[in-house]
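Reviewer 2 asked us to include a model.

Predict the structure of this chain.
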Amino acid sequence: MSVLQESGDPWAIAAVVRFLHTMTKSVAVYAVVSSWLNALVFTASIGENFVPLLAALCRNLAWFGATLDKHASAAGGLRIFAPDSAASVWVILPRKNR
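Predicted model (structure tokens):
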């Protein structure tokens, strides 16, 4: 994602914007159907490598109370939601093969 975003190619940037729109829509639908959003969990590459996407998604879902802690997110924390967030936001790192 970061490679696409940083490429400057209008088609690549459009793909990232479309992905963000699709993610926002998908999470919002599940949140509405279940009546609330308790937690938002990012895994693997998107969660650990593309903080701007996490921030944008949380901004889009702010009406559900998902508030990102910018410092924890930028520092690569696992618990990346702000103290006043109504929904918890987490990054779960994949297990490495041994």
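The chain is about 50% helix and 10% strand. The first helix runs from residue 2 to 7. We have added this to the supplementary material.
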